[in-house]
């Protein structure tokens, strides 16, 4: 998961009036997936990252013991969005225009962005997958919910290929791709049964709580498509974290 701060830059025009342009910027303290700034060191890089170490509901996890429950279905109301894709130095992320939602029971969250991890961060019964898509949502109060779509090597995923055809050549530059629309609904499996639990962001600052919905059915992606991402990001995956008494519920 990516955490973004909302900053503002001001620009003076020729006539002296000032326009405020909201701009998304990455958190500045550097972190990485290996080496001296790797996952075991995140909490010491910046005090703002302390939850990566002291948190009790950290993500990702290995999903092993679950409680089957009569959970409401996730209702997906995703609309097409103009493709805005950025390589932020940790992953490839697609920013989503307002107006796409999930509803679970009486709780509604808006889709803000999705991004990729290779290999998957989530494990099921100890097994990882080739990749995962994290679809990041926020409700009106700023509570976060992430839908994870696991990807396993198989047939070509034509919806993903559209993004792979437009991968940014530079880092940290949001590229709006003229005339290309994508729809996050195209990445969802037909069967949308899920696991749910309380977790965190899987990248600094590892904020808790985040409500996770991990779809049980993986989608397919060709091994060639996995390779394209792996060349950019061979391993953008945080190790699985302790469960610490959390209950994982599973829809029937
Ligand atoms: Zn993620």
Descriptive account of the structure:
The chain has 252 residues and is mostly beta strands. The chain has one domain (56-251): Carbonic Anhydrase II (Roll), CATH 3.10.200. Helices cover 10% and strands 40% of the residues. The protein has helices spanning 42-45, 51-54, 158-164, 223-232; strands at 4-12, 18-26, 62-63, 66-69, 74-77, 81-87, 92-95, 101-104, 107-117, 123-124, 131-138, 144-153, 175-182, 194-199, 210-215, 219-221, 248-251. Strands 4, 5, 6, 7, 8, 9, 11, 12, 13, 14, 15, 16 and 17 form a 13-stranded mixed sheet that branches. Strands 1-2 form a two-stranded antiparallel sheet. It has a two-stranded parallel ribbon with strand order 3-10. A hairpin with a 5-residue loop joins strand 11 and strand 12 (144-153). It is globular, with a radius of gyration of 18 Å. The two termini are 27 Å apart. The model is unreliable at 1-26 (pLDDT under 50). Zinc ion is lined by residues 1, 115, 117, 134, 202.
Helix and strand topology:
Elements: E1 4-12, E2 18-26, H1 42-45, H2 51-54, E3 62-63, E4 66-69, E5 74-77, E6 81-87, E7 92-95, E8 101-104, E9 107-117, E10 123-124, E11 131-138, E12 144-153, H3 158-164, E13 175-182, E14 194-199, E15 210-215, E16 219-221, H4 223-232, E17 248-251
């Amino acid at each position: 998961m990516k955490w973004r701060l909302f900053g503002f830059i001001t620009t003076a025009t020729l006539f002296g009036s000032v326009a405020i342009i909201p701009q998304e910027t990455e958190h500045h303290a550097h972190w990485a997936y290996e080496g001296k700034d790797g996952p075991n060191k995140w909490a010491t890089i910046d005090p703002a990252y302390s939850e990566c170490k002291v948190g009790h509901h950290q993500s990702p996890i290995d999903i092993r013991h679950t409680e089957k429950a009569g959970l409401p279905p996730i209702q997906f109301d995703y609309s097409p969005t103009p493709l805005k894709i950025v390589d932020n130095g940790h992953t490839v992320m697609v920013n989503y225009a307002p107006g796409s939602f999930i509803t679970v029971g009486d709780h509604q969250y808006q889709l803000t962005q999705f991004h990729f991890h290779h290999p998957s961060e989530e494990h099921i019964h100890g097994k990882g997958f080739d990749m995962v898509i994290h679809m990041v949502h926020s409700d009106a109060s700023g509570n976060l919910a992430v839908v994870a779509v696991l990807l396993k090597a198989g047939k070509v995923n034509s919806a993903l290929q559209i993004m792979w055809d437009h991968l940014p050549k530079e880092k940290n530059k949001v590229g709006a791709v003229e005339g290309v629309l994508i729809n996050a609904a195209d990445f969802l499996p037909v069967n949308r049964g899920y696991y749910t639990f309380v977790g965190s962001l899987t990248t600094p600052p590892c904020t808790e709580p985040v409500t996770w919905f991990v779809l049980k059915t993986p989608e397919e992606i060709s091994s060639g498509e996995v390779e394209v991402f792996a060349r950019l990001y061979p391993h953008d995956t945080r190790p699985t974290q302790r469960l610490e008494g959390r209950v994982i519920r599973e829809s029937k």
